[in-house]
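Summary: Need help interpreting a holo structure output

Steps to reproduce:
1. Submit the protein chain below together with the SMILES for pyridoxal-5'-phosphate.
2. Request a joint structure prediction with the ligand placed.
3. Inspect the structure token block that comes back.

Expected: a single structure record containing both the chain and the bound molecule.
Actual: see attached output.

Input attached:
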Amino acid sequence: MVVAQHTIPVAHPIIGEEEIDAVVAVMRSGNLVQGRVVEDFERRFADIIGVRHAVAVSSGTAALHIAMLALGIGPGDEVITTPFSFVATGNAVLYTGARPVFVDIRADDFCIDPDLIESAITSRTRAILPVHLYGQAADMRAIQIIAQRHGLPIIEDAAQAHAASIDGRNVGTFGLGCFSFYATKNVMTAEGGAITTDDDALANRLRMLRAHGAPTRYRHEILGFNYRMTDLHAAIGLVQLNRLEDLTRQRITNADYLNSRIHNVVTPRAKQGRRHVYHQYTIRVRTERDQAARILAECGVGSGVHYPIPIHQQPLYRQLGYVDSLPVAEQASREVLSLPVHPALDRQDLDRIVAAVSRLPG
Ligand SMILES: Cc1ncc(COP(=O)(O)O)c(C=O)c1O
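--- attached output ---
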């Protein structure tokens, strides 16, 4: 007889009574849209990251879009980025009228390979956009050297990397930091995003861009958007930010537990000096990934593929004329499989994941 058991989901938003109470309090206040709670959320997030400004917006995609606009990026420009990311990274470049130029990744951290960036720089290059994929920082020291040498700004896609760091320095402080607070992120506001910066002028511009280009009500100086965050969302986020360090430590503890017990497949590793915050715990499955996912599912273990098609090979990008060959990213797309690592897992869940993975071919 097969004993039915619950499936461990690959992602699991943590919502406690405190988040619920905070939302109800905003509802009762009658002030639902962007107001004081958003300001408090921005202040708290800026303090955590270690910057002067956090500008809250409606999504991580919106954060990337207006970060580029604030830097003056537009038609005819190029932005160097990674093909191995959620499609929003490339799309946000397209929104501005600029062209994403994809550079292959490193096999061991899934992030843009700094050794390949310089040969992709042209007279049209306006920025470098690394992604801290799965919660591990890209090699920012190497990227900073290249950016400085060529006078290029850095935009960090830190959507998956709240509180990830390099030698104690948080991501989001190396350039314009773009974060997502989508429901399954390490901390969330249901939907939401933020841009972090020390630059007062850029912060002002970002604040205008998120609200129809208006520095004051009904005075519109530039073409902006409605990318505001609401107080309802910020209320969830404020509670979540209080939990950020605990939630992050739990993810790292879970990943360490899995790493110490899984030996038959390639497991993720934090690189020297980098704090990996394990938004995803992603293994490589060399053969028959679909079958591997089925085996895990039979054992009651959910899994996910992030991402099955690299951005340059997406149908949209094919239509736009992208014919690049980026073998490391393409191989990763065929092999990666993310397992549950979220803070809601208990010891039994972790042991079930280990047992399920031991049934996979190496
Ligand atoms: C790497 C990456 N970039 C950008 C985004 C876009 O964030 P959002 O879904 O909040 O628009 C996401 C989130 O899904 C992401 O994972």
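--- end attachment ---

Reviewer comment: The two ends are 29 Å apart (CA to CA). The CA atoms of residues 208 and 214 lie 5 Å apart.
Status: needs-info
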